[in-house]
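ok so I'm stuck.
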Amino acid sequence: MKREAFSSKIGLILAAAGSAVGLGNIWKFPYIAGENGGGAFLLIYLACVIVFGVPLIMMELYIGKRSRKSPYGAFRALSGSGRWQWLSWLCVLTAVLIMGFYFVVTGWCFSYLSEALIGGFRGMSTDTLAEHFTAVTANTPRMLVFSILPVLVTSAVAWFAINKGIERMSKLLMPMLLLIMLIMVIRVLMLEGSMSGLRFFLHADFSKITPDVFIQAMGQCFFSLSIGMGTLVTYGSYMPQEQSLSQASVQVVILDTLVAFLAGVIIFPAVFSFGFNPAEGPQLVFVVLPAIFEQMSFSWLSGVLFFLLLGIAAITSTISLMEVVVAFIGEATATTRHPLNRRTSVCIVTGIAVVLVVLCLLQQTAFSVFEQLTANYLMPLGALCMSVLVGWTLSRPDEAAYLNEKGFQPWMVKAFSFVLRWVVPAMILLVFLHGLNLF
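replied:
not stuck anymore, here's the structure
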């Protein structure tokens, strides 16, 4: 059976960028930057994106496009043996565990959007909002409703497959996300004192650059680009054959980095304009920003736009997470006596997602374990193993020739292979050891 593919080059770019763009860009990037010196962190982060981000994005798209398979069959096809089959299970395990807690965080976004729509934050101080956030997230029945909602939306997109589902939704959501961000950038830059926040974010104080800032920037690069869990391998398998790997990789990285940059331009001017601390940590989005919006003119619109932005960014990521597991199930059962079609696979994954959401809501420990396990261990391990596999596979003349596409010269193939073999594994190892508190 012919494998479905994106109908256009822009469809792949927007879908892959949507996979990478998520809460890591809009929620995590600003507070990590705020805790690590603003402009100093941004400078190191951009360097990491260029040196590591582009090769890693290209690596995953290459695996998918070359094999025309999801992670289940891609690593076997690339290596020529079943010795790397375990890596496909690592990818799907990572995607499944991330779905568990990510749908809950997406539920927070939709819950806050519903409150912003009815003006629910009116008159609240930061202290009151901090207590409110604790109360909202501890309200299991409410959070169950708002966490199951994105599961159903994501399942509906997966139900309609690539062209009518993922591609069509990506073409709608990604431009909408960028439009909302541009509106909010214009809005916050009109605030009195906003230039102080912009200077904090754009001016690099080199005295703030420490080994820990470098490690944090590298880890954020991997997290923000969603590397190491097979989402881009899966999307790469739907990639049009005539589309350039190198150009697509650069375009995806540019879009993802643009969203993270615009998030900083939105948040730091607003924070400085109203005298808050930019190093507020994870509560920056759900506690400090609602307080800021309440002090702004057109506060209702500002709050609604921002939490709508968060919700859209989260959904673009959950779509890719679910697609990894759906494609995996379809390929894993394709040669059995009872192969499962896409819609049956979607129903199975939806059931798994609901069970994990309930588990994370009932057991905070499960939420924390899933988050820490995937971000600190499974994603770096997946990226490390994929980089080793692809780096050494490219030593074969047939594989090197495959990358000799228009604009990608033989010396670039050698450089790409060297980075994947040696540089990327060394850097990922540093992130891995940092996650273990050993470095």
